[in-house]
Automatic annotation (TrEMBL):
Residues 5-328 form the NAD(P)-binding domain. It comes from [Clostridium] polysaccharolyticum. GO terms for molecular function: dTDP-glucose 4,6-dehydratase activity. It catalyses: dTDP-alpha-D-glucose = dTDP-4-dehydro-6-deoxy-alpha-D-glucose + H2O. InterPro entries: dTDP_Gluc_deHydtase (IPR005888), NAD(P)-bd_dom (IPR016040), NAD(P)-bd_dom_sf (IPR036291). This is dTDP-glucose 4,6-dehydratase. It comes from the Bacteria. Its cofactor is NAD(+).
């Protein structure tokens, strides 16, 4: 039985990944989820797996050396899948320090703990792997046109968030180069799907539209992101753990580029279609809610992944069409309004007030 140490498993992608592992792995797996439960970590995201006897939750900060060492001392970890991070660009612009601490120092702490636990006299215990979950944002920004991020594209991060993720990637690379430490790095484009915290574009727009609140679009609304359904990302990570060549970087995404205004329009149209005729909110879900606001500082114009390498080497490709994925996502949020209320009732209101003066 393989043991996965998943960091940040109470967040959006981590929770989907843990669910994916238990749903799809034919042989039993053990999952240790270590998460500090920051504002974006939520144990409600793990309701479907929490009773599984092979699931263990440890509340700890990845920067806490003793706590992380204790996990490795207590379990024979086969794979580290490192999601835990501060992840929101807007927050990084307001408060960069915590991004450096968690994303850079936390990664270093994890690398050291795994290296110490796996080291033998002449290398590392058989079959171990550390997977760094990174982002396409480390490559910087593309102009409009037929250009894409490849694994060979030089890193050129612009926000404190992407700079901290690029720094973490460089540390991971240095452990592979210096100590022959067994790693992979995945760099994924924007994810969407169930359990995403409503500070990010898609859940924020769904939530605001359903509450009849304005839909704040930064700048001209023509910035482009390459959207990937979160379960496709979970599958990619699992396939890279199983079949990725040690030391390699894999871009994950899939030629699904959309401008922000297109995304918001699709959300409004889909809500109009899905909401029952007698639902009071239906009448309020209109394009009049769209409100252009000041642009994000240093706003990256366009992200677009070339996923050729992961397709050719590992056979992964994005399976979920955007029209299907966004419908599933909106339906999920409609069914989980209590989930949304729980996470938007407290601190979130303060964040929203400070961030959006509309
Ligand atoms: P998220 O913000 O939803 O979740 C982050 C999780 O990490 C939370 O559960 C939080 O409690 C935990 N965490 C934060 N600081 C911690 C610390 N110091 N110690 C332990 N746990 C801590 O983020 P997400 O969207 O699920 O992103 C997961 C990973 O995927 C991140 O590394 C992110 O950079 C990467 N990524 C995200 C996207 C995306 O579109 N969301 C795209 C590409 C890559
Ligand atoms: P976001 O979901 O924060 O992801 P990232 O910045 O990591 O790509 O934002 C996606 C795009 O949506 C980005 O171009 C910024 C834009 N955006 C808005 O226009 N309004 C908003 O309220 C938010 C949160 C994002």
């Amino acid at each position: 039985m393989k043991t996965y140490l998943v960091t940040g498993g109470a967040g959006f992608i981590g929770a989907n990944f843990i669910e994916y592992l238990f749903e799809t792995k034919k042989e039993a797996v053990k999952v240790i989820n270590v998460d500090a439960l920051t504002y974006s970590g939520n144990l409600e995201n793990l309701k479907r797996v929490e009773d599984n006897p092979n699931y263990i939750f440890v509340k700890a900060d990845i920067c806490d050396k003793a706590a992380i060492e204790q996990i490795f001392a207590g379990h024979d970890v086969d794979y580290v899948v490192h999601f835990a991070a501060e992840t929101h660009v807007d927050r990084s612009i307001r408060n960069p320090e915590v991004f450096a601490k968690t994303n850079v120092m936390g990664t270093l702490n994890l690398l050291n703990a795994a290296k110490n636990a796996w080291e033998t006299e002449d290398g590392y215990k058989e079959g171990k792997k550390y997977l760094q979950v990174s982002t396409d944002e480390v490559y910087g920004s593309l102009e409009e046109g037929n250009t894409f991020f490849y694994e060979t594209t030089p890193l050129d991060p612009h926000s404190p968030y992407s700079a901290s993720k690029a720094s973490a990637d460089m540390l991971v690379k240095s452990y592979a180069d210096t100590y022959q430490f067994p790693v992979n790095i995945t760099r994924c484009s924007n994810n969407y799907g169930p359990y995403q915290f409503p500070e990010k574009l898609i859940p924020l727009m769904i939530n605001n539209a359903l509450s009849g609140k304005k839909l704040p679009i930064y700048g001209d609304g023509l910035n482009v992101r390459d959207w990937l359904y979160v379960k496709d990302h979970a599958k990619a990570i699992s396939m890279v753990i199983d079949n990725g060549k040690l030391g390699e970087v894999y871009n994950v995404g899939g030629h699904n580029e959309k401008t922000n205004i297109e995304i918001v329009t699709i959300i409004l149209d889909t809500l109009q279609e899905i909401l029952p005729a007698d639902d009071a909110r239906r009448a309020g879900v209109t394009k009049e809610l769209i409100t252009y606001v000041a642009d994000r500082k240093g706003h990256d114009r366009r992200y677009a992944i070339a996923p050729d390498k992961i397709k050719e080497d590992i056979g992964w490709y994005p399976e979920t069409k955007f029209e299907d994925g966004i419908r599933l996502t909106i339906q999920w949020y409609l069914k989980h309004q209590q989930w949304m209320e729980n996470i938007t009732s407290g601190q979130y209101q303060e964040y929203y007030k400070e961030m959006y003066s509309i």
